[in-house]
TrEMBL record:
<feature type="domain" description="Saccharopine dehydrogenase NADP binding">
    <location>
        <begin position="11"/>
        <end position="146"/>
    </location>
</feature>
<dbReference type="InterPro" id="IPR005097">
    <property type="entry name" value="Sacchrp_dh_NADP-bd"/>
</dbReference>
<comment type="similarity">
    <text>Belongs to the saccharopine dehydrogenase family.</text>
</comment>
<keyword id="KW-0812">Transmembrane</keyword>
<keyword id="KW-1133">Transmembrane helix</keyword>
<feature type="transmembrane region" description="Helical">
    <location>
        <begin position="306"/>
        <end position="325"/>
    </location>
</feature>
<keyword id="KW-0472">Membrane</keyword>
<dbReference type="InterPro" id="IPR036291">
    <property type="entry name" value="NAD(P)-bd_dom_sf"/>
</dbReference>
<dbReference type="GO" id="GO:0009247">
    <property type="term" value="P:glycolipid biosynthetic process"/>
</dbReference>
<dbReference type="GO" id="GO:0016020">
    <property type="term" value="C:membrane"/>
</dbReference>
<protein>
    <recommendedName>
        <fullName>Saccharopine dehydrogenase NADP binding domain-containing protein</fullName>
    </recommendedName>
</protein>
<feature type="region of interest" description="Disordered">
    <location>
        <begin position="212"/>
        <end position="235"/>
    </location>
</feature>
<dbReference type="InterPro" id="IPR051276">
    <property type="entry name" value="Saccharopine_DH-like_oxidrdct"/>
</dbReference>
<feature type="compositionally biased region" description="Pro residues">
    <location>
        <begin position="220"/>
        <end position="231"/>
    </location>
</feature>
<dbReference type="Pfam" id="PF03435">
    <property type="entry name" value="Sacchrp_dh_NADP"/>
</dbReference>
<dbReference type="GO" id="GO:0005811">
    <property type="term" value="C:lipid droplet"/>
</dbReference>
Length: 453
C-alpha cells in the first residue's frame, strides 16, 4: 500500500521563531477554525530549529496550551530540499525570516516551483525587485502568486494612497501626495531589529540595486497632470500637520510607484484566474477611480531631536555600511549606532502594547484640472488630507496585515491573478482588505478637504 500523501496546510508560517514570526503565529491562531466561515482551517509553523519554533508556538498560544493540531515543520533557507518539501505542503506560505536579501529569495523560489502562494513582510527594494525580475515568469507558469511587502511595509502606504486617490472625483485631479509617518509611544519607541539590519545591508547592496534597475526595461510612467512638485529641503519645519518632518528613503515609495506602473500598463487592473463577472466589474470600476500622483514619504515628529536621532542613525549606516568591518560594527552594536532606537533584544511586550502609528497623506492637485491647465495655472489649488492609523508597526500592525492578506488569498483566490510577482496594491487593492483591516484595529479616514487660494 502506498504511503498517504502529506497533509497540505492552508497556511505555513516560515521563520516562525523570529521576533515578528511569533507575533504572526499569535495573530493567525485567532482565525484558525474561529468560525464556520473562517477560511483558515489548517496551520503549520516552520523554521530551522524545532525547539525554537515550539517555544514560539507556546508563547503565541499562552495562556492556553499550544494547539495540538498545529504541527512544526523543519526547514532551512540553506537547504533547498527542505524548502521544496515545505512549499509542497502549503497553499500559502507566510515568509517572516529576514533579512530577506539573505533568506527570502530561496523561500519565494521554492513557492514558485511548487505553485504555492507566498506573502512576505520585506521592506527591501533590492530583494523585491530581484524576485520580480527572476521569479515572475516561473511563478506565472505554476500559478504561484508572490507578493512582498505585506506588512507595515507597505500595505498601509499602498491602501492609504489608493484610499486617498479615490477622494479626488472629477473634475478635480491629484498631482502629488506626501505621506507623513508619525510613531508614538507612552514608553520608549524601539524599532524592529530586522528593519535596521535590512537598512545596513541595503547600503552595502545599493550598487547591485542600481545595476539590476539598469538591466531591466524602464517601467512605464503614469500620466500625471501639471508639473512635478519641487523637491524641497531635507528637513521640513512648515507643513499642514504642524510637525517637523524629514524625507525618508522608504520602501513604501518604491512599492507605490511599482503599483502605479502596473496600473499604467493595465488600466483595468489584473484579471483574476477565474473571477466572477461581479468581481470583474468591481475591479474595473475600482481602478478607474484611482488617480496616479507623485508620491513620497517623510518621517514626522513633534520633536526636532527625534529627527536628529534618525539623521544620526542614517549617517552612521551610510558611512559604515559600505565596508565589511563597518557593517560588522553596525550589526553588533545597533543600540549605539541608532541612538537607542534599535536593540538586538527587541522591545518588551509593554513597549509594544504602548506604541501606535499615524500616517497622514497630504495630497495637492487641481479642483478643476481642465480649467486650471487651460488658464495656464501650474500651482495646485486643492488640498486633501487623509489618515491611516493603527497599533505598533512591527509586531502588531505587520502581523494583522500579513494574516488578513492570507485570509483574502484563501477566501478569494479565484478573483485574484493566477500567478506572478506583484505588489500588495496590485493584488489586494480591489478586494475587501481595507475593510478587514478596519475590523482588526486599523482606521482609514478623511481629515481635510479644502480649496486653497
Amino acid at each position: 500500500m502506498a504511503p498517504p500523501e502529506p497533509e497540505v496546510f492552508d497556511v505555513v508560517i516560515f521563520g516562525a521563531s523570529g521576533f515578528t514570526g511569533k507575533y504572526v503565529i499569535r495573530e493567525a491562531l485567532k482565525f484558525l477554525n474561529s468560525s464556520s466561515n473562517s477560511p483558515l482551517r489548517s496551520l503549520a509553523v516552520a523554521g530551522r530549529s524545532r525547539d525554537r519554533v515550539a517555544a514560539a508556538l507556546r508563547w503565541a498560544a499562552a495562556p492556553a496550551p499550544p494547539p495540538e493540531d498545529v504541527p512544526i515543520l523543519v526547514a532551512d533557507t540553506s537547504d533547498p530540499a527542505s524548502l521544496a518539501a515545505l512549499a509542497a505542503r502549503a497553499r500559502v506560505v507566510l515568509s517572516c525570516a529576514g533579512p530577506f536579501r539573505l533568506h527570502g529569495h530561496a523561500v519565494a523560489a521554492a513557492c514558485a516551483a511548487a505553485g504555492a502562494d507566498c506573502l512576505d513582510i520585506s521592506g527591501e527594494p533590492e530583494f523585491m525587485e530581484r524576485v520580480e525580475a527572476e521569479l515572475h515568469e516561473p511563478a506565472a507558469k505554476t500559478g504561484s502568486l508572490i507578493v512582498s511587502a505585506c506588512g507595515f511595509d507597505s500595505v498601509p502606504a499602498e491602501l492609504g494612497f489608493l484610499f486617498h486617490s479615490r477622494q479626488w472625483e472629477p473634475p478635480s485631479a491629484l498631482v502629488s501626495v506626501e505621506a507623513y509617518v508619525y510613531l508614538q509611544s507612552s514608553k520608549r519607541i524601539v524599532g524592529n531589529i530586522g528593519t535596521y539590519e535590512s537598512a545596513v545591508l541595503g547600503v552595502a547592496n545599493a550598487g547591485q540595486l542600481q545595476a539590476l534597475r539598469r538591466s531591466r526595461p524602464r517601467p512605464p510612467k503614469p500620466n500625471i497632470p501639471g508639473p512635478p512638485p519641487p523637491k524641497g529641503s531635507l528637513i521640513e519645519g512648515q507643513n499642514p500637520l504642524g510637525m517637523w518632518a524629514m524625507k525618508l528613503p522608504s520602501a513604501d515609495t518604491v512599492v507605490v510607484k511599482r503599483t502605479l506602473s502596473t496600473l499604467t500598463e493595465h488600466p483595468e487592473g489584473l484579471p483574476g484566474a477565474e473571477e466572477t463577472p461581479e468581481y470583474a466589474e468591481h475591479r474595473k470600476k475600482f481602478w478607474s477611480s484611482v488617480k496616479p500622483a507623485h508620491f513620497g514619504v517623510k518621517i514626522a515628529s513633534r520633536s526636532l531631536m527625534m529627527l536628529v536621532r534618525f539623521i544620526f542613525t542614517g549617517i552612521f549606516i551610510g558611512l559604515f555600511g559600505n565596508f565589511s568591518f563597518g557593517r560588522s560594527l553596525l550589526l553588533k552594536y545597533p543600540e549605539f549606532f541608532s541612538a537607542g532606537m534599535f536593540r538586538r533584544a527587541g522591545p518588551t511586550e509593554e513597549e509594544v502594547k504602548s506604541a501606535s502609528f499615524k500616517m497622514w497623506f497630504v495630497g495637492h492637485g487641481y479642483s478643476n484640472v481642465d480649467r486650471s491647465l487651460e488658464l495656464g495655472r501650474s500651482k495646485p489649488d486643492k488640498e486633501v488630507i487623509t489618515k491611516v492609523s493603527g497599533p505598533e508597526v512591527g509586531y502588531i500592525t505587520t502581523p494583522i496585515v500579513l494574516v488578513q492578506c492570507a485570509l483574502v488569498l484563501l477566501s478569494q483566490r479565484a478573483n485574484l491573478p493566477k500567478g506572478g510577482v506583484y505588489t500588495p496594491g496590485t493584488v489586494f487593492g480591489p478586494t475587501d482588505l481595507q475593510q478587514r483591516l478596519q475590523e482588526n484595529g486599523l482606521s482609514f479616514e478623511v481629515n481635510v478637504t479644502r480649496t486653497m487660494s
